[in-house]
Structure to design on (1499 residues):
């Protein structure tokens, strides 16, 4: 076989001729067999280039054109393909056909006149300038298509594709076709060229035809048969590649793929391409308004788009795009429809909410009704074109109104019917709810706390179940129960107040005994308001305990009327009545001679302050005057270079009140000194009235170092100074700001600038240099307390308005927010009266502890609780103090009509008569009473003034000389507040801020002829000072000599009448304990406390005390205590006649008996007094072996106010008294708590945040807690009362603030006390949003604690401990391990595990005392923490359970035999290390502290 000459040596080229049945319609039928389609698909496989119609009927002109070129064959062009063996080849495709003349319908005449069978078998084809054929449209328009000629005008055919149409062709017999093909094959076979039979149109193929074609091929020497479909592009390339492999024998045999298998592969390929294309369209096309032109351009470069267009064509791609657009539009319309339908019910509710209006209207009539509504156009829009979904309204997104034609649709009609039904059901349900509520209100079976299950059968019927679910009725029932429960609780609270006398007589404390609780239950048990809470016993008991807490610890916060407590109202009224001190100073500034004076503090270390002061003085005149803006000012400088806490370095003195401060620094050390000094100065003044130093204007100045011109550290110093100035909110000046030259700290321009700023600040803040003298603070003639009842139905405004509107009313100098000063003419002289307006519960705290000359007590005539509180209050008032009772009524008519008011008025009058008090009533309808109604009362007070003051002084002296500590242990020592054990618990509860008198303001005063007096504070020798001034002595009461403290000089202008020695914390009262601080900054804490004088008790004491009388000079009133009964030789009283001393001989004396309480004079007071002596003072926890001794001692005659119960009768009394005196004085008096420096403005990022934010997996312990515990374990394990004795509150806040700014704070370098660090650590846990022991775990802990078996209980607690959150568990373990270590030092620090648990359990568990469960479980909480501390090795370090101690839990004897756990020094008796628990984490500062302590010891 001759191979055609190849044009390219490297790429083989094959010429293939496609032949098959051709001819006229008679011969081939109405359509051809698909030769042209086969060639078209192979040469141009893209779907867009494929044409189904290729006609063979041509005009003469088209036949003679260059494409056909008068030949009966078509040149399809050249194709490059890669065969299966990846070898590329070229193929020239020729189709042999027969063209028919469109006129004669006979074959066109050509150069070759041979029949088709002869022509088709030709192997040499020649046609000069013959063009490549594309499609029928090309004929006659050849210039519009690519014009590519047949190479060289001739081709040598290398092989034939013999086509057989297996479809059911019209007007064609398959057998005739097969006969034609057989003849054609015989002719082709003569050429000896390879032949491949191609079955065309297999997509429409007939199975018999296909089978016959295969039979034909088998009969012709096993011809290769390929089943194809040009329309579906199946096996087209396979046919041509099969022929090429037959032509080139060197190629392997091609695998023939059956048609249906190939069709499946092709379909999968098309489906994949379609999916990718559809995804592409959906990703690109989001709007239904997109057009094909723009989108096709966007997709042009996408392979997914190209693949699909190649396989299926552009038209199909466009069709899919249009389908997607249609889908988007449909979805858009449906979304709008849903929005409209969702808004339609809202429109119905807004336009036609009334059922009566539409109850019988159809949807059509309702539609007309809607149009008449004023807000119709707000909800609907009427379109000109309908329906709305076929208009452009669908794209009007801004208009959300509902198309009105939507109402014509079925869904809209259904929604209207639903709206109607909803309104009808709501009406019926509302009727049922109303009927149910009425049933609840009228039913006698519904009582507070009755469960729904019990009440349901009484109030439910079938109608209720039909219309509403049971949950609705349960909700209504729950709300109704809440209302009646709240009402019952309010009534029960009122009942508790009506029995105020009972609660105060029982002398309750924080943990009342079961006996006292039983008495309360018995007394209140028959009251209907008590029975009303029968089913809510837990809540009732909680209310009782809450009320007990109020009685024991009365504050504005614990007041039952909070937040409408009288104290808060009075504070507001008084503060709004008087101008602030700064405003008052502003008014007086014009007349103040000090307005032209500038007091300037210069603060600087290492000589900076003195040096700058000298430079400034050099710029002044000879008389220290400085000229600013042409005006002369007196300039006073105070350079400070040392510790500002020392009086010599104090910012302020009695004669120097600073207007500003220059802060100098030239190094990091001097800058640190400035910051610390400012903080200390601010902290030291927060508790005083002159707290303006907190806002003192500051100027921070960086000065040059002498001889240092280098700028190495200048930039860093400027940067640090700017940061400090920003924190201190002050002005900053650096050397470059004003051109400071070498050798100068500050120039004249800067000095003038600073002084001008100080003048402006002085004018704005009115910091005029004026200090209150001692006379202003102490010169008060009378102190009257006005008591009001919280919750009474009257306005405190109406009662106080006559007082506050009085022209003589002034603001109190003592700084109290509840008191005013009055100057009233009483008798022949004007008297200065300090009137304190307090609630009853605040007044309880001052009945014994403060000097009060008289009480004005108000009560409401229409409220039983008001008069009951008055009775309870008067029970403990001494009968020498005048009382003014004031009844508040609603008017005369109300009194006549109201039985309760009449009874209350009558009882008030009778009480006043029995106690020799005064009584008046004021109608609330005419509240504008006048102060004149109290003038008779004021006269009584003036008459009894001296005896009242002498009695008060005697009581305090007697208490100061007492050799026992009963005053500490009695919860009624002055007030329930005096024995507040809460100070040893979680947060050192502060007393209320509304004390009657400032302790530092109650200064002593002598008679008028003594203008000045100088005394030395010598421990407790103040007692001898009092006695010497009254010219009388108490036998054997001479204190031992002690080291004197510095003398303090006072200017005293009146009689010694306002000596207030009380301490609000219930400490032992003495003269030396009163905070007599002079204004020059003397601080008694800078000196050591002397040991108390040990007083030998007298066998018989008459307690004579004298007081100089005002009216007659030299007259002495001598008072003898004749009410004291003797008891075993140690009593305080005697019934002997009055004795007179040598100082009193020859003088007229008057004997007055020791005052008694009003309870003994009035039958209407103290009706529950029998309970007063029925119980031992204390709680259940305090009832121990000593109780029997107490009862015995009480039976032997310990009576009266100063009666003492000796708790330790086994040892020598003198030794016991000495030991107690020593033990008491080892503790410093607790400093007066001061407000926080920055608590209102300081926003901490460390304190008060969740625990998880301050710990990490690498550091599971908060760094602050770790630092505090390391410091305490290094320096404070031997501190007595650690964690019980509270630290200074301002120092604790200062520590927290400094740590918040610098987490690397070294506690060893600061001057914080151990108690301050311990208190700050407890405060950290108190400020956590959630307690360290989670609330969810507390319930489990209490349940585990209820287990009786000790070992099982401990294991159960350990299991609960494992459930703690990881962060909480790690910190809890760390703290408990530390407390265990502290408890093992209890012999030194006196803090056993029990004491530590009492101090720590409220901090760690923080229970909610508003619930009964928490209130009743307090003892369990404390015991649980105690067990954790005792059994710390077992709970956290897998050690065996420690044996229970033989003594009481937590006592030193119980801990003594136990091997110390987690001690810092190893003991020889400890087990081997593997059995020992790990030690407490070592503080990095501990070695440093140890070395420092050792160094200090050696020094």
């Amino acid at each position: 076989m001759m191979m055609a000459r190849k044009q390219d040596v490297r790429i083989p080229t094959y010429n293939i001729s496609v032949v098959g049945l051709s001819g006229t319609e008679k011969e081939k039928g109405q359509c051809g067999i698909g030769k042209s389609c086969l060639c078209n698909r192979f040469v141009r496989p893209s779907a867009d280039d494929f044409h189904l119609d290729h006609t063979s009927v041509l005009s003469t002109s088209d036949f003679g054109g260059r494409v056909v070129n008068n030949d009966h064959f078509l040149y399809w062009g050249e194709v490059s393909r890669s065969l299966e063996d990846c070898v590329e080849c070229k193929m020239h495709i020729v189709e042999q056909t027969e063209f028919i003349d469109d006129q004669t319908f006979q074959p066109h005449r050509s150069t070759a006149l041979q029949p088709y069978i002869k022509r088709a078998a030709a192997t040499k084809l020649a046609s000069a300038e013959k063009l490549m054929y594309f499609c029928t449209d090309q004929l006659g328009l050849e210039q519009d298509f690519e014009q590519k000629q047949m190479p060289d005008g001739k081709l040598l055919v290398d092989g034939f594709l013999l086509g057989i149409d297996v479809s059911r062709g019209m007007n064609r017999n398959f057998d005739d076709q097969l006969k034609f093909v057989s003849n054609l094959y015989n002719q082709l076979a003569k050429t000896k060229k390879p032949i491949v039979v191609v079955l065309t149109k297999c997509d429409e193929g007939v199975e018999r035809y296909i089978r016959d074609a295969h039979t034909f091929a088998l009969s012709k020497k096993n011809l290769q048969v390929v089943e194809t479909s040009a329309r579906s592009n199946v096996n087209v390339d396979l046919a041509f590649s099969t022929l090429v492999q037959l032509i080139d024998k060197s190629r392997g045999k091609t695998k023939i793929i059956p048609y249906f298998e190939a069709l499946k592969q092709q379909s999968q390929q098309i489906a994949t391409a379609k999916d990718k294309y559809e995804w592409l369209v959906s990703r690109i096309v989001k709007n239904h308004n997109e057009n094909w032109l723009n989108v096709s351009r966007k997709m042009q470069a996408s392979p997914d788009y190209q693949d699909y267009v190649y396989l299926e064509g552009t038209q199909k791609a466009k069709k899919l795009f249009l389908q997607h657009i249609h889908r988007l539009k449909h979805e858009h319309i449906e979304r709008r429809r849903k929005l409209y339908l969702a808004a339609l019910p809202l429109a119905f509710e807004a336009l036609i909410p009334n059922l009566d209006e539409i109850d019988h209207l159809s949807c059509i009539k309702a539609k007309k009704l809607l149009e008449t509504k004023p807000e119709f156009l707000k909800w609907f829009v009427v379109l000109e074109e309908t329906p709305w979904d076929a208009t452009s309204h669908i794209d009007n997104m801004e208009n959300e109104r509902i198309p009105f034609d939507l109402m014509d649709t079925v869904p809209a009609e259904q929604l209207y019917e639903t709206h109607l039904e909803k309104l009808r059901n709501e009406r019926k349900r509302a009727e049922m709810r109303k009927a149910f509520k009425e049933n609840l209100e009228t039913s006698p079976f519904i009582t507070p706390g009755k469960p729904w299950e019990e009440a349901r059968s009484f109030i439910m019927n079938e109608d209720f179940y039909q219309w509403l679910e049971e949950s609705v009725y349960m909700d209504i029932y729950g709300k109704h129960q809440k209302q009646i429960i709240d009402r019952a609780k309010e009534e029960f609270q009122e009942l508790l107040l009506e029995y105020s006398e009972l609660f105060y007589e029982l002398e309750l404390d924080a943990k009342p005994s079961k006996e006292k609780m039983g008495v309360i239950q018995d007394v209140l048990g028959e009251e209907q308001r008590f029975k009303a809470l029968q089913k809510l016993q837990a809540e009732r008991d909680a209310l009782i305990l809450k009320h007990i807490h109020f009685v024991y610890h009365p504050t504005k916060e614990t007041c039952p009327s909070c937040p409408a407590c009288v104290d808060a109202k009075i504070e507001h009224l008084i503060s709004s009545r008087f101008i602030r001190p700064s405003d008052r100073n502003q008014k007086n500034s014009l007349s103040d001679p000090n307005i032209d004076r500038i007091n300037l503090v210069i603060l600087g270390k290492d000589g900076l302050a003195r040096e700058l002061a000298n430079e400034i003085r050099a710029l002044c005149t000879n008389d220290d005057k400085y000229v600013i803006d042409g005006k002369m000012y007196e300039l006073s400088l105070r350079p400070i270079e040392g510790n500002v806490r020392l009086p010599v370095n104090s910012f302020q003195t009695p004669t120097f009140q600073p207007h500003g401060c220059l802060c100098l620094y030239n190094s990091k050390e001097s800058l640190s000194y400035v910051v610390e000094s400012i903080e200390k100065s601010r902290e030291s003044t927060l508790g005083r009235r002159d707290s303006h130093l907190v806002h003192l204007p500051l100027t921070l100045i960086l000065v040059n170092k002498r001889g240092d011109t280098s700028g190495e550290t200048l930039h860093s110093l400027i940067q640090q100074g700017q940061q400090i100035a920003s924190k201190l909110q002050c002005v900053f000046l650096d050397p470059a700001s004003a051109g400071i030259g070498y050798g100068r700290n500050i120039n004249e321009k800067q000095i003038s600038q600073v002084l001008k700023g100080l003048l402006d600040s002085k004018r704005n803040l009115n910091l005029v240099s004026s200090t209150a003298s001692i006379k202003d603070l102490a010169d008060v003639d009378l102190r009257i307390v006005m008591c009001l009842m919280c919750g009474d139905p009257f306005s405190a405004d109406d009662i106080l308005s006559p007082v506050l509107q009085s022209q003589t009313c002034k603001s109190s100098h003592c700084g109290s927010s509840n008191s005013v000063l009055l100057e009233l003419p009483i008798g022949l002289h004007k008297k200065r009266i300090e009137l304190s307006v307090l609630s009853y519960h605040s007044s309880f705290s001052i009945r014994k502890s403060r000097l009060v000359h008289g009480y004005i007590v108000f009560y409401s005539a229409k409220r039983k609780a008001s008069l009951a509180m008055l009775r309870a209050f008067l029970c403990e008032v001494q009968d020498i103090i005048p009382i003014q009772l004031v009844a508040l009524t609603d008017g005369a008519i109300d009194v006549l009509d109201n039985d309760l008011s009449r009874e209350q008025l009558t009882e008030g009058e009778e009480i006043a008569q029995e106690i020799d008090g005064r009584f008046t009533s004021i109608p609330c309808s005419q509240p504008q009473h006048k102060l004149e109604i109290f003038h008779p009362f004021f006269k009584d007070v003036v008459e009894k003034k001296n005896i009242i003051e002498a009695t008060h002084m005697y009581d305090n002296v007697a208490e100061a000389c007492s050799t026992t500590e009963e005053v500490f242990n009695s919860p009624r020592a002055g007030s329930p507040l005096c024995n507040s054990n809460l100070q040893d618990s979680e947060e050192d509860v502060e007393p209320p801020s509304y004390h009657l008198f400032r302790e530092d303001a109650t200064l002593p005063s002598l008679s008028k002829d003594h203008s000045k007096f100088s005394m030395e504070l010598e421990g407790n020798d103040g007692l001898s000072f009092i006695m010497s001034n009254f010219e009388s002595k108490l036998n054997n009461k001479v204190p031992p000599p002690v080291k004197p403290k510095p003398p303090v000089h006072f200017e005293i202008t009146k009689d010694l009448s306002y000596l207030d020695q009380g301490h609000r914390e219930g400490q032992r009262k003495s003269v030396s304990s009163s905070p007599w601080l002079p204004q020059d900054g003397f601080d008694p804490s800078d000196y050591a406390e002397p040991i108390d004088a040990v007083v030998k008790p007298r066998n018989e004491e008459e307690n004579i005390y004298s007081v100089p009388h005002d009216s007659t000079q030299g007259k002495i009133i001598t008072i003898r205590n004749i009410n004291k009964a003797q008891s075993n030789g140690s009593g305080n009283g005697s019934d002997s006649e009055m004795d007179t001393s040598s100082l009193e001989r020859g003088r007229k004396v008057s004997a007055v008996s020791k005052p008694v309480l009003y309870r003994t004079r009035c039958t209407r007071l103290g009706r529950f007094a029998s309970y007063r002596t029925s119980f031992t003072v204390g709680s259940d926890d305090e009832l121990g072996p000593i109780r029997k001794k107490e009862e015995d001692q009480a039976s032997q005659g310990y009576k009266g106010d100063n009666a003492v119960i000796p708790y330790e009768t086994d040892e020598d009394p003198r030794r016991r008294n000495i030991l107690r005196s020593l033990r008491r004085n080892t503790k410093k008096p607790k400093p007066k708590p001061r407000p926080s420096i920055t608590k209102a403005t300081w926003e901490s990022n460390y304190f008060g945040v969740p625990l998880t934010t301050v710990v990490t997996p690498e550091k599971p312990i908060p760094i602050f807690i770790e630092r505090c515990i390391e410091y305490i374990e290094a320096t404070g394990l031997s501190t007595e009362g650690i964690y019980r004795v509270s630290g200074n509150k301002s120092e604790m806040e200062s520590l927290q603030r400094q740590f918040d700014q610098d987490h690397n704070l070294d506690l060893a370098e600061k001057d914080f006390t151990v108690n301050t660090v311990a208190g700050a650590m407890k405060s950290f846990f108190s400020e956590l949003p959630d307690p360290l022991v989670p609330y969810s775990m507390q319930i489990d802990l209490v349940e585990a604690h209820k287990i009786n078996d000790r070992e099982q209980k401990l294991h159960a607690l350990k299991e609960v401990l494992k459930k703690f959150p990881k962060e909480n568990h790690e910190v809890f373990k760390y703290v408990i391990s530390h407390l265990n270590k502290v408890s093992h030092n209890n012999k030194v620090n006196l803090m056993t595990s029990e004491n530590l648990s009492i101090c720590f359990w409220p901090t760690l568990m923080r229970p909610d005392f508003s619930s009964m469960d928490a209130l009743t479980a307090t003892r369990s909480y404390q015991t649980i923490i105690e067990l954790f501390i005792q059994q710390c090795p077992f709970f956290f370090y897998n050690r065996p359970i420690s044996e229970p101690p033989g003594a009481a839990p937590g006592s030193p004897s119980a801990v003594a035999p136990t091997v110390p756990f987690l001690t810092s020094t190893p003991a020889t008796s400890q087990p081997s290390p593997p059995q020992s628990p790990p030690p407490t984490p070592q503080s990095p500062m501990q070695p440093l502290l140890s070395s420092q302590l050792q160094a200090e010891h050696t020094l």
